[in-house]
Amino acid sequence: MDSSSSSSSFDRFSRRAAVIARHLRDPALPAAASTAAAIEAAPCLRYTPPELSEGPPAFEPRELRRLLDGHGVAERDWLFRAMEESPLFCPRRRGGSGEGRVFVAPDYNQTKEQQREMTMRRIGHLKSRGVFEGWLTAAAGDDEAEMRKLAFLECLGIYDHSLAIKIGVHFFLWGGAIQFFGTKRHHDKWLKDTEDYVVKGCFAMTELGHGSNVRGIETIATYDKSSGEFVINTPCESAQKYWIGGAANHATHTVIFAQLHMDGINQGVHAFIAQIRDVDGNICPNVRIADCGHKTGLNGVDNGRIWFDNIRVPRENLLNSVADVLPDGQYVSSIKDPDQRFAAFLAPLTFGRVNIAVNTVYMSKIGLAIAVRYALTRQAFAITPNGPELLLLDYPSHQRRLVPLLAKACAMSFAANYLKKMYLKRTPESNKAIHIYSSALKAVLTWQNMSTLQECREACGGQGLKTENRIGILKSEYDVQSTFEGDNNVLMQQVSKALLGEYVAAQKRKIPLRGLGLEHINEPCPDIPENLTSSILRSFKFQTDIFCLRERDLLKRYADEVSQYQAKGESKERATLLSYPLAEDLARAFTERTILQTILEAEMALTAGPLKDVLGLMRSMYSLICMEEGASFLRYGYLSIGNAAAVRKEVMALCSKIRPHALAIVSSFGIPDAFLSPIAFDWIDANTWSSPNNELQWSAAAQLYESNGINLFACTK
Ligand SMILES: Cc1cc2nc3c(=O)[nH]c(=O)nc-3n(C[C@H](O)[C@H](O)[C@H](O)COP(=O)(O)OP(=O)(O)OC[C@H]3O[C@@H](n4cnc5c(N)ncnc54)[C@H](O)[C@@H]3O)c2cc1C
């Protein structure tokens, strides 16, 4: 094609374009008139707050919030306000008209160093507001102080995971180790200073070579009788302490876990206090520290690696509630069995697991509150020609994606509260049960949180990917919950192993099972009706029966399979490993039955009325969605193929029953508006041309502060 022909076709195209444009501009022309009418028929989208479009709630959301939070509603609201009011919590205004709305969230665009310093500055601010008072020094048995602390921790996590973890490591891993493993001399010396942040603590258990297998750690402690000191050494690269929260920048002290070698005998893992930095932040002699580097989330926590080059700590720094070394080098312990001694050293991790289980449900609540509110204001496609577009939440498919997750979040809240209460009332006798429940619930609730957040992210389409809309970033911030404080898969194996132990012991001694809710196994096997009607499917009797049936059958199958392997000559350990598929199904069956019981108890405690009715619907939804998703119900025949289809149908029926309550349910989650995100409110206004570009605004604000000599990122020591 020569240039003249190409220019003539360009001219033809330009002329056509000009004619079309004239048609569109000139209202006198018939074609233009029809175009104008079409434009009028589809006016620009307007945002209607869901509170207006949805009508009044059938129940009082504050009442459900009181049940779901379980305690400390006023304290929580106080702390939320304290965070909203401080510029350190990055308030940002969104909205182009009127006043807009203010949201608070960390600035995840900051470098990891900046995020770490901001975390410390926020801690400094919270300390000045008295948030941490009594966290380590309140009198034993002061349940009120304990509950307030737990409520505060939940609020801090709702703002930012790094903030909650940095505080958690200092107070509950370092401080907890001193409380649990230490004795009066350690309590007197360290607890008040820890509460006041005079010392900043970390917890050095994990090594490069050993994470889940704590017993295999390679750091060595020996006792030097002549000086009355322990000598702690990192003998090889795989023994370097790894992932230690607080170690990279801020911690002044650490608890070191090491194998205690006494006179050629390895007495097992013990815990020692050591100083790693001086008051000016300089690393102590014979200690080397490196950064773990940038992570996919949680960059406000300075995770570090530590090597100990024969550091010396006084004999008194052995945390000696479980075992001690006398000045003459004699090793003494009230717990003779090394297995039990080791278990006692893991006790502080229990609180971490309780806290993670509780905290993770709130992340699901944030995701769900945002996704449901968005689905109540966002439309997509019309299903009739020229008809209005449908609200996302009016699509059965969207209901199926979000409504069961609402039921799971509610059910799991009750389970988390149950665990929290059990932990507060702990006795030496209940420690084992708490270990099992906390392991099971930590694993199942954190896994559920990740899939809930993913579904919520997708339910918000592209908006779900914007950092300011929180859900996407929450996924990467909270992913680690399935790994730290006990890897989920390892924890679930421990749960099934413990259940097996209870079962085998009861069989051997010919006594009924007691504890862990397993008493139902002593009763006759429940009967499951052949044809599951809607009313049977919604009855709590059927739901508990089928959950119990699954648990007892799996426990028996697991025990039988393990003994069959043993009969073929396998060791007990290998037999349990080979029966892993059954172990996995069993641990889930135990956990889901426990969760069902807690929501059922909450429902039964209510007087008749709309709230009880809605909770009943949610309990049914929780039960049925577990049946629909849990392959074991079909795999082992607890549900026939026909009944599995009936369950699926009932899930859909429940979706449309619960749909009208969706807004009230997410309101009852108690997440303040400022901790949600722009798409949970007027997302059109938040995105107008005149709405501030907040990332630019924030960095401009930071520059302004700095030009006035204020370093926003400077850490208060
Ligand atoms: C951000 C972050 C912060 C942390 N903070 C701290 C801290 O402050 N202090 C501290 O001491 N530690 C900390 N940790 C370490 C954490 O506790 C460990 O990462 C965790 O215990 C898992 O150990 P690992 O990473 O070595 O994984 P591994 O134990 O190597 O596990 C890897 C995989 O193998 C599987 N696996 C392991 N054992 C078995 C088994 N017996 N059977 C079947 N499968 C198995 C696991 O399920 C997992 O999928 C932190 C970790 C992270 C990521």
How many strands appear in the DSSP assignment? Answer: 15
User: CATH topology of the domain at 522-667, which one?
Assistant: Butyryl-CoA Dehydrogenase, subunit A, domain 3
Strand residue content:
5-15%
Q: Mind describing the biggest β-sheet?
A: 6 strands, mixed
Distance between the termini: 74 Å
Number of H- or I-type helical stretches: 24
Low-confidence residue ranges: 1-39, 712-717
Q: Would you tell me the overall average pLDDT?
A: 91
Overall body shape: globular
Helix percentage range: 40-55%
- CATH class identity of the domain at 522-667: Mainly Alpha
Q: What small molecules accompany the polymer chains?
A: flavin-adenine dinucleotide
The radius of gyration computed from the alpha-carbon positions, rounded to a whole number of angstroms, is: 30 Å
CATH-assigned homologous superfamily of the domain at 522-667: Butyryl-CoA Dehydrogenase, subunit A, domain 3
Family: Belongs to the acyl-CoA oxidase family.
Protein name: Acyl-coenzyme A oxidase
Pfam families: ACOX (PF01756), ACOX_C_alpha1 (PF22924), Acyl-CoA_dh_M (PF02770)
InterPro entries: ACOX_C_alpha1, Acyl-CoA_Oxase/DH_mid-dom, Acyl-CoA_Oxase/DH_mid-dom_sf, Acyl-CoA_oxidase, Acyl-CoA_oxidase_C, AcylCo_DH-like_C, AcylCoA_DH/oxidase_NM_dom_sf
